């Protein structure tokens, strides 16, 4: 029984992981080898495949674009979410109504909004800019982000507010000097969630940009595949380059990342 | 203890974002859905003609059916598989942490990369799957998975169904909150592992089941990358879904009005799906806990 369970887990691991290993292995082969011997090790490890990708595409530039968008959208989203979560520490008129208003978006399939988002970004003069994409990411992720930060702030003892007022601090000072310093864990969790979503997004990135200067890594992967469609191993090398950074960062911070991504769902 | 004006300063940015990215887009979507519009020229009010067009369009019908199939795959395949894996890892066998990290890995990698990876895995001639069948002598099983209208939509779903890390972790997190006393008591009564799962663990993670079903339904409604990149919605539109339909009507066909009426249908379908899910899971029961 124990072996059966172990065997099942290993089989499942195999099914989910072998495609990645196959991809990495194939990225070092020649085109002929890929077709003739799909499972063997490459006869000669073709580093040239990687050189071909790096020399024909401005990969560092795509990386920069993706990182820029991820950072800006994360900052925007987390700042807005933290401010509103602080407001929700108090009681005020229609509080639950306001809360519902800023979080109901979780249930909206935002893909349906491609036409409005396209025009909003155009009207703001941000079409084909990194800022435009970042703004949309922050907006779309805000509801879940609010939920993450607010859930964390709810766990803070509210007496801390009163104590701060008794000491004569204003509402703003209480926010900056009392609440903000103890809210970091919630904000980090929300940041991880926002970063990874922004880094991996494709639809809005391709909708809101068109020039090579603003292309993100995910949009670029689409172009790699068409440029290298005759030479599969080179296309595979391009994909490996695109996913390696994520895997490296994940291997270093896996616990934090797992926590960050699932935080919106686990209350 | 606080004047309302001060609260609204903190509330304002979030309200602005909500207005800009949810309320206004929804109004705009409603407006455009009743127009005939190519995105550049003048709008032409056509009332409900766009919806009439959708109802008569066989491609839209396929997109609706496929989106429902995606949601069903999320609820009936992906979620149970995640629960099963969580149950296996919850017994804390050797190396369970490593398993957890590895199973979650695909959830960190972009869907774009996964879509291309599986495009190649299922590729008719160089694909891993067909080559595997050839190597073990099951050549007749090899199949053009992505270019056969009968299998394309299901082939698109394979990576989603298999990559259960997110769902599994949510189950696992909930399982760790179950009191160990329950299991001790069950052991004294001589319960087997399967009985413990059936009578303690699964009933105690009911709210995690609800959360996973909701998240997976939302995920499937938004699904875009797998159909776009693995099959392009083809062959013969057999694997198109609502997201891709909206996208193609806007980007390829320049029929913004049709695109947005399809968008409205997607939102309504999402609302209907959520109501059904909440209803089925017994919202009242959950409300008592929250």
Automatic annotation (TrEMBL), chain A:
Q: Which UniProt keywords apply?
A: Cell membrane, Membrane, Transmembrane, Transmembrane helix, Transport
| Topology with respect to the bilayer | Multi-pass membrane protein
User: Is Nucleotide-binding included in the keywords of this UniProt record?
Assistant: no
Q: Where are the transmembrane segments?
A: 62-86, 98-119, 131-153, 174-199, 232-253
Places the protein is found:
Cell membrane
Gene3D superfamilies given in the database record: MetI-like
Taxonomically, which superkingdom? Bacteria
Coiled-coil ranges from the UniProt annotation: none
Q: Which residues form the signal peptide?
A: none
Q: Which Pfam families match?
A: BPD_transp_1
Sorted alphabetically, which SUPFAM superfamilies does this protein's record hold? MetI-like
Chief localization class?
Answer: membrane
Into which family does the record put it?
Answer: Belongs to the binding-protein-dependent transport system permease family.
Full protein name: Sugar ABC transporter permease
Source organism per entry reads: Paenibacillus woosongensis
